[in-house]
Amino acid sequence: MFKKILVANRGEIACRIARTCRKLGIQVATVHSIADRTALHVREIGESIEIGAAPATESYLVIDRIVEAALRVGADAVHPGYGFLAENGDFAEALAKKGVAFIGPSPDVLRQFGNKASAKQIARLAGVPVVPGTDRPSASIKEIERAVTGMKLPLLLKAAAGGGGKGMRVVANVATVNADIQAAMREGKSSFGDPSLIVEQFLPNARHIEVQILGDGQGNVVHLFDRECSLQRRHQKVIEEAPVLSLAPALRESILAHAVRLGERVRYAGLGTVEFIVKDADAFFLEVNPRIQVEHPVTESVTGLDLVELQIRAVADGALPVAQADVSVSGVAIEARLYAEDADNGFLPSTGTIGKLRLTDKVRVDAGITEGMAITPYYDPMIAKLIATAATRTEAYTRLNAALLDCMVSGVTTNLTFLRRIVSDTSVLANEVHTGTIDAMIASGAEVSRFSLDAHIAAGLWLWSRRSCRIWGGREGLTSWRLGSGVPESSAAPAIHLTASGRSHDVRFGYAGRPDALLVNVDGHEVIFTFHAHGDGQVTIAYDDVAITVMPSVSDGFAGFASAVANSGFSVHPYLSGSLLAHAGANDGQVRAPMMGRVVSVNVEKGQTVAVGDVLAVMESMKMELTIASPTAGCVTHIDCVADATVERDQVVFVVSTNAENAA
């Protein structure tokens, strides 16, 4: 058995691995970037080596620095976790040259399975059906364009070295092929250090099924059953289940057999996941993730096995620690991934500092974040994973729903409300799901929150929290506006820009006849609120005959605001600029960055004429790309961003003056 393991990762998975190491009596150390100096994994593990700047390409993806860290702490093995270098054969080889074990497959197997193209070739040789497409990776835009031309749309571009949904683009329109290829290549390069792509036929509205395998490196492989992973957004999983209950028994057994056969063919060592796409009762091989998966806890919950322990023992001993006959499942486990992202606005990542954080004790929780920690644009925005286990699928979903209602996060926008919506959706509860289910939910236009006045509450709390600020006293205030007298009516000033639940609102305030009350007018709809602050930081808000209690968090500058109500299912996750605007909130042509991140490219020049929707710049945050488009037709009169620079959320990056203004 290993004496000391270096965990070459961060966040919840680093904490998770460390817990098993300590259970086994193995010493543990880790690594961190400059941005992670005070991160939870650094604090929990206790010994950590700083390996570089915040971007992963300058820290967690730098092989030499991690190998050096392993030698420095005296580790005889490295656990890569998932992501970063977990599937990098060069990394495993570099460790081997220094006499340090890699807890995973051999370098050759990593290169075979870590690359989606070669993995497809192995699957074909093993007689496993594969999704039609290319099986030779290419970093040539022209070569990928030629491959796309010879196939029927829609197609899927996939980073050959990728995983976790990164570096993937659906090509549905010939006109966007070049831009889609470049975006997928940039994400592949940023996330995995390799821009190479393969092209596959895109199979929409299919089931995404995966099989957990374990090998000893000697040709012996067992499966630890399967997982249902069809509930996804942006090709990344949101909800996972174990075991799979959606397939005919014969098809399910064939998928399990295919996965074991693939592992046996390459003499697989350690944990791995074989993924399949199921369409119209046919199963096609997708890829192998030669590492531990984010969703491994659901398999642990139904098998009673510690997968990290099995992974370590299989590699350390070169023997299977469990026989196939000894692996069985009992009950159903469901995992929900809690992210710092805006589910109502294209799942854009949300950066900021975690304010109040309460994670339930009703189910298993694997977390990598605590109160006061920052969500940065450099890494995946996962906050925690909630895993509910029960005897039946229905009961497991009931427990997960109750657990989500028991959680609260402030300071950043999260997908908490959206997760609650998913786990109570009728199609989900009926197990009638596919990879397009979440997109269909969004397209349906159904309300994400069951409370319709979230924008009013957000705006009211924002201003009420500033009772001591100058804007409440007209003599020294910026607006010459006061709330001390008058009749209940909305005022012409001040106004704020507010985005709540993915929608923009015109917000005004007015005097409500008493010092603890405020009139809030959002898009012409007036509501009078009264506020009562409690000693524990909570605030009770009353309107009409309703009273709700929230835990507010309001920040200045590039402001983020979030509040939630314990055990009620109500939550508010708006984003507001925090700045007072001109009378009536007139459009001033300012274009603001939708999130904190790195500017990939600036696509316009000062003085250039643009139309509505023209791309002004491309940004990247948390390995996700998005475009900043012009909201109006006009002339670019100001640019305040450059390529490779970091911008803050809500920072004014462009000013587009209207054609009428230019003519004047």
Describe this structure in words.
The longest helix is centred in the middle third of the chain and has 17 residues, at 249-265. The relative contact order is 0.08. Helix content is 25%, strand content 32%. Strand 23 and strand 24 (503-511) form a beta hairpin. It has 17 helices and 40 strands. Helix 7 packs across helix 8 (177-192). The chain is globular, with a radius of gyration of 26 Å. It has five domains: 4-103, Rossmann fold, CATH 3.40.50; 132-201, Dna Ligase, domain 1 (2-Layer Sandwich); 207-443, 2-Layer Sandwich (D-amino Acid Aminotransferase, Chain A, domain 1); 454-583, Glycoprotein, Type 4 Pilin; 588-663, OB fold (Dihydrolipoamide Acetyltransferase, E2P) (Beta Barrel), CATH 2.40.50.100. It has 664 residues and is an alpha+beta fold. The strands form ten sheets. An eight-stranded antiparallel β-sheet has the order 13-12-9-10-11-14-21-19. A seven-stranded antiparallel β-sheet has the order 28-27-26-25-24-23-32, covered by helices on one side. Strands 3-2-1-4-5 form a five-stranded parallel β-sheet, with helices on both faces.
CATH domain class of the largest domain = Alpha Beta
Distance between the termini: 78 Å
Helix content: 25-40%
Average pLDDT works out at 84
Strand order across the largest sheet: 13-12-9-10-11-14-21-19
Which fold name is given in CATH as the topology of the largest domain?
Answer: D-amino Acid Aminotransferase, Chain A, domain 1
Beta-strand content: 25-35%
Tell me about the biggest sheet? 8 strands, antiparallel
Low-confidence stretches: 447-451, 468-495, 556-587, 660-664
Number of helices: 17
What is the tally of beta strands?
40
Shape: globular
Count of separate structural domains: 5
